[in-house]
Design a protein that fits this description.
Residues 270-366 form the Histidine kinase domain. The chain is built from twelve helices and eight strands. By secondary structure, it is α+β, with helices and mostly antiparallel strands.
Length: 384
């Protein structure tokens, strides 16, 4: 709090200008009240004297308003109880009101027009009590407005700081999830290459080259949460080439793209874990061959992704825990929830005719020209 208040010089000026405008309005109102009173009493108004009195009152009032704002702001740093703070301000309001009025009268008699008549001490005290309520309330109103202004400002700053911290935590969480995904994918691919070494060394070499190309794509986007759909499909295509080399004609991959995907962005490495999961769990003795359909469809302001296969499906005993035990599935769910909140849909279900269908629906994100971070872009999708 102390650091925040020390940086509010510009805010002090704004607050003082607002209070000055209000105080100026009160002086103008007072001037017309005096004019109306003279008209009702049938007494001619000394325009020069009246204007001088209001101008002098405005100058002195401005000085006291600045002093009140500065003094009140200092109490924002103090950790005193509310009853004690109120008591202190009531005492200061009484003292300042007296000093304010004495200063006004003294300067008025010093610089104003003189008619040879001077105030006696009891007259000064009498006139002070007649005007005490106005100055007392003016101090309290100024102090209350100052407190309210800085508490609102502090609340706004806290919300901005909290939002920044949430974005930083979100970005750290997404990077952590993505860092989990890369080794998981790499180890599985290396295991595929290893299993092929004793069977077909030529295919193993081809897979190694494809893996190197794939890793270049992945590393190029390692710190990016949202990438262009074309780049994501290029990464997935490299992975598909590796798996097709491994399984040859036993694996069939079909692509179905519907709609305009120019500038469309999706989370990096979103599709590969789902295709990998279909391959890993789709093959079985009863399913020696596997077909995977990858469907992407643009629906107005949303993007639909369906990855389905005709494999063995999810075993019944694992169906209820797949989002808790499957690294790729669990990671995908957490990333989608972190980026899109409750505006995303993700489901993994067995199809009646056999096989598994992965369904994802997310808000449509388009690449922008401004240098926003990818997390900021995902937040922009949420609020658009």
């Amino acid at each position: 709090m102390q650091g925040q208040v020390k940086k509010t010089g510009g805010s002090d000026l704004k607050l003082i200008l607002v209070l000055t405008a209000v105080f100026t309005l009160s002086q103008v109102t007072t001037f017309f009240r005096i004019y109306a009173q003279h008209q009702m009493d049938g007494v001619p108004l000394d325009w020069g004297g009246a204007i001088w009195d209001r101008f002098l009152a405005w100058i002195i009032g401005f000085i006291f308003l600045v002093a009140i704002v500065i003094t009140t702001r200092r109490y924002l740093l103090e950790k005193k109880s509310w009853p004690l703070t109120i008591g202190i301000h009531l005492f200061i309001a009484a003292v300042v009101s007296f000093i304010w009025y004495v200063t006004l009268i003294s300067i008025s008699k010093l610089f104003g027009p003189t008619n040879g008549e001077a105030f006696a001490n009891f007259d000064l005290l009498y006139w002070f009590f007649m005007n005490f309520d106005k100055l007392f309330l003016l101090y309290l109103c100024t102090a209350i407005i100052t407190y309210a202004y800085y508490y609102v400002q502090r609340d706004r700053d806290n919300r901005i700081n909290r939002s920044k911290m949430e974005n930083q935590l979100l970005e750290a969480r997404l990077k952590m999830l993505q860092s989990q995904l890369h080794p998981h994918f790499l180890f599985n691919t290396l295991n595929s290459i290893t299993s092929l070494m004793d069977v077909d060394i030529h295919k193993a070499k081809i897979m190694t080259v494809d893996l190197a190309d794939l890793l270049r794509h992945v590393l190029a986007h390692k710190d990016v949460q949202l990438i262009n759909l074309d780049d994501e499909l290029a990464i997935l295509s490299k992975y598909v080439d590796i798996e097709k080399t491994r399984f040859s004609d036993d694996l069939e991959i079909n692509w179905h793209l519907e709609g305009d995907f120019k500038r469309v962005q999706i989370p990096s490495m979103l599709l590969q874990p789902l295709v990998e999961n279909s391959i890993k769990h789709g093959f079985s003795r009863q399913h020696p061959s596997l077909r995977i359909d990858i469907r992407l469809k643009r629906l107005k302001d949303r993007l639909q992704v369906i990855i389905e296969d005709n494999g063995q499906g999810i075993p019944q005993q694992e169906a209820g825990t797949i989002f808790e035990t499957g690294t790729g599935i669990q990671n995908t769910q957490q990333r989608l929830e972190s980026i899109y909140g409750d505006q995303q849909v993700f489901s993994v279900t067995n199809k009646p005719e056999g096989g598994v269908m992965n369904l994802i629906e997310i808000p449509l994100a388009l690449s922008v020209q401004s240098p926003l971070t990818e997390v900021s872009r995902s937040r922009e999708v949420l609020t658009s």
